[in-house]
From TrEMBL:
This protein's UniProt keywords: Aminotransferase, Pyridoxal phosphate, Transferase
Cofactor(s) in the UniProt record: pyridoxal 5'-phosphate
Gene Ontology molecular function terms on file: transaminase activity
The organism's place on the tree of life at top rank: Bacteria
Name of the protein: PLP-dependent aminotransferase family protein
Occurrences of domain Aminotransferase class I/classII large (ranges): 64-395
Matching InterPro entries: Aminotransferase_I/II_large (IPR004839), Class-I_PLP-dep_aminotransf (IPR050859), PyrdxlP-dep_Trfase (IPR015424), PyrdxlP-dep_Trfase_major (IPR015421), PyrdxlP-dep_Trfase_small (IPR015422)
SUPFAM superfamilies: PLP-dependent transferases
The organism of origin for this protein: Ornithinimicrobium kibberense
Matching Pfam families: Aminotran_1_2
């Protein structure tokens, strides 16, 4: 949302860093439209993939009439029922952890906010991927960071470019923000070699690595890679941010961070100054969902659906945009990143596309400097395959309309 340019109120200097989110604003923009729109904009799980009936069923016990204490305050670090269920859920994964490393948060966004609150002072340099999830870079800006954009290719953040850019600036980033797996927005996954190089560089510089991975459990092709958390082998420099938003439902607003145990008292103090505790009924609901053994079957189904949807989107792109654009080929997650030729303007295309009944997020929304005007992000996860074909066809109609003036 665009803030007012002047105000008589004594605003804090940091409000100049509150840049808002084009992605989040698209929720209300689209809600205000009355015509039929194929929605490739928000990174939401498919409506029909949200296990609403199971959640209602397990919720009836967990937060229903028998559970009055579910409406009380919770422990700041998280409700024991959820922490235990989460530890069990992570056992055997590359995110396996211990209770003293876990803090339950209000979604992944609060994890990012806590990370920046603990590590970013005004003027600190924060390296971000380019393109990046701008709610993440926006969080760093809200703490008055300076940003360094580091290019991403199909193998993830270009760690060599990170070193070179830092040398050119003569400054080392205090924090490196990465989405290593099925990156938002590009879909790229950082290779094992780059993961190791990144940790090596962070160690050399004494930087913190914010490892934001909401999509890693949604792999539908290829082999899983060790997480940065696992590769760091107990080194305190990795701050892992995770969420149930993509694997269960975003409206729950429940996530977690995994950090060195020495940080937990600070995290608790920071969270107590924010929201006291994460919404207890929702923590109990997620715990009941996990304890009921529902997650694995749900993930199996989701992975299969998302693979079909990605393939449907790629097939439709080949049909309507072959020779006009190129796109990525993610092995999981929600997004395809589509790049047109350099003269193309996906922001100018947006209102035309909306009129034609299709929505996406323009590429420049994923770069604090406004790079990628010729690209756009498509979320394949939220839309069934036949509607995906329809949406991509509408996009082609919009492109032709724009080109025809
Ligand atoms: N990080 C990334 C990379 C994301 O894509 C998202 C959600 N779009 C988040 C963090 C925020 O997650 P949550 O909705 O749980 O706050």
């Amino acid at each position: 949302m665009t803030p007012p340019t002047t105000t008589a109120l004594p605003l804090a200097a940091r409000t100049s860093g509150l840049v808002g989110s084009v992605i989040d604003s698209s929720t209300s923009l689209l809600a205000s439209q009355t015509h039929d729109i194929v929605r490739f904009a928000m990174g939401s799980p498919a409506r029909e993939a949200i296990p609403a009936e199971i959640l209602a069923e397990v919720g009836a016990d967990a937060i229903g009439a028998q559970a009055h204490d579910a409406f009380d305050y919770a422990a700041t670090e998280g409700d024991p029922a959820l922490r235990d269920a989460l530890l069990e859920m992570l056992e055997g994964t590359t995110d396996a952890t211990t209770p003293d490393r876990l803090t339950i948060t209000s979604g992944g966004m609060q994890g990012l906010d806590l990370a920046c609150k603990l590590f970013v002072d005004p003027g600190d340099l924060v390296a971000v991927e380019s393109p990046t999830y701008t709610n993440g870079s926006g969080t760093a800006l809200s703490y008055q960071a300076e940003l360094l954009e580091v290019p991403v290719d199909r193998d993830g953040m270009q760690v060599v470019a990170l070193r070179e850019e830092a040398q050119r600036l003569g400054r080392r980033p205090k924090v490196i923000y990465t989405i290593p797996t099925f990156q938002n927005p590009s879909g790229a996954t950082m290779t094992l070699e780059r993961r190791r190089e990144l940790l090596e560089l962070a160690r050399e510089w004494g930087s913190m690595v914010i490892d934001d991975d909401p999509y890693g459990m949604l792999r539908f092709a290829g082999e899983p890679l060790p997480s940065l958390h696992e590769l760091a082998a107990g080194d305190p420099l990795v701050f892992s941010v995770r969420t149930f938003s993509k694997i269960v439902a975003p409206g729950l607003r429940v996530g977690w961070v995994d950090t060195d145990p020495s940080l937990q008292p600070l995290l608790v103090n920071a969270k107590q100054a924010m929201d006291t505790c994460t919404n207890l009924p929702m923590q109990r609901l997620v715990a009941a969902f996990l304890c009921g053994g529902h997650l694995e079957a749900h993930l199996v189904e989701q992975r299969q659906q998302y693979r079909l949807r990605k393939e449907a989107m790629q097939a439709a792109l080949t049909e309507h945009f072959g020779g006009l654009a190129r796109w990525t080929d993610p092995e999981g997650g929600f997004f395809l990143w589509v790049t047109f030729d350099p003269a193309f303007d996906t922001q100018a295309l947006f209102p035309v596309a909306l009129e034609e009944g299709v929505a996406y997020i323009p590429g420049n929304a994923f770069s604090p400097e406004g790079r990628f005007p010729d690209a756009l992000r498509l979320c394949f996860a939220s839309t069934p395959p036949d509607r995906i074909a329809e949406g991509v066809q509408r996009l082609r109609v919009a492109v032709d309309r724009l080109a025809g003036g």
